[in-house]
Amino acid sequence: MTPITTIIFDLSEVYLTGLKETEIYLSKLWGISEEEFYKKMHGKELNDYFHGKTTEDELIEAVLKNNSWPIGKQEFKELIRQNFKEVEGTREIIEKLKEKGFRLGLLSIHGKEWVEHLEKKFDYHKLFDSILYSFDIEVSKPDKQAYIHILERLKVKPEECLFIDDCSKNVRAAEELGIKGVHFKNSSQLKSELEKMGIAFS
């Protein structure tokens, strides 16, 4: 069995929360279901933003125009930023893996302006050997090309890698390429999964 040398993380809901927390907050505030809010937010406009085709301002303007939500553009932008927070325990795991000598990658579906804010606020980019965002390449998980791009950047074979994501279909897509996968639920569960693979934290 080929040993794991490289571990690739997702960003949203694995290392950082953010848009999801904003959706939960506003759906409760406005008395609509989270599912309804999600459908209205996660349309073509957000997909275009994540693939580098539009700016954050254009995204917010389009979403507000389509939905007539009682919030201004600047307030919405600031609210999203306020809800970006670290997932408890994940950074410590990443730092420990780095100490142990694993090569680390980040493969994320995200928008340019949000990432600029996040990298400045959380300074996480220094933890990874290679980082790849959907807006960089106009491709996102679970498209196989997204995984191939990060493997090429890290200069590793699929069988050497472990991929961690909170979305099960993204994990399955990685596994279909020969990458080992963990469906992330929380940092304690991740630590337990890693220890089962022989990666000790004690």
What's a quick, concise take on this entry?
The protein is of the alpha/beta class. Helix content is 51%, strand content 11%.
H/E element string? Answer: EHHHHHHEHEHHEHEH
Distance between the termini: 24 Å
- Count of alpha and pi helical runs: 11
- Describe the global form: globular
Q: In terms of structural class, how would the helical and strand content be classed? A: alpha/beta
Percent of residues in helices comes to 40-55%
Could you tell me the strand content as a percent range? Answer: 5-15%
What is the average of the pLDDT values?
95
In the CATH hierarchy, what is the architecture of the largest domain at level 2? 3-Layer(aba) Sandwich
- CATH topology type of the largest domain: Rossmann fold
Offer a few descriptive terms.
202 residues; alpha/beta; Rossmann fold; DNA polymerase, domain 1; 2 domains; five-stranded parallel beta sheet; globular
Give a structural overview:
The structure is a single chain. The protein has a 5-stranded parallel beta sheet with strand order 3-2-1-4-5, sandwiched between helices. The chain has helices at 19-30, 34-41, 44-50, 56-67, 73-82, 90-99, 112-122, 134-137, 144-154, 168-176, 187-196; strands at residues 6-9, 103-108, 130-133, 161-165, 180-183. It is globular, with a radius of gyration of 17 Å. α10 (168-176) links the parallel β4 (161-165) and β5 (180-183). Helix content is 51%, strand content 11%. α1 (19-30) crosses α2 (34-41) and α3 (44-50) runs antiparallel to α4 (56-67). The protein is of the alpha/beta class. It has 2 domains: 6-16 and 87-196, HAD superfamily/HAD-like (Rossmann fold, 3-Layer(aba) Sandwich), CATH 3.40.50; 19-82, DNA polymerase, domain 1, CATH 1.10.150. It contains 11 helices and 5 strands; from the N terminus they run βααααααβαβααβαβα. The chain starts with 5 loop residues before the first strand and ends in a 6-residue tail after the last helix.
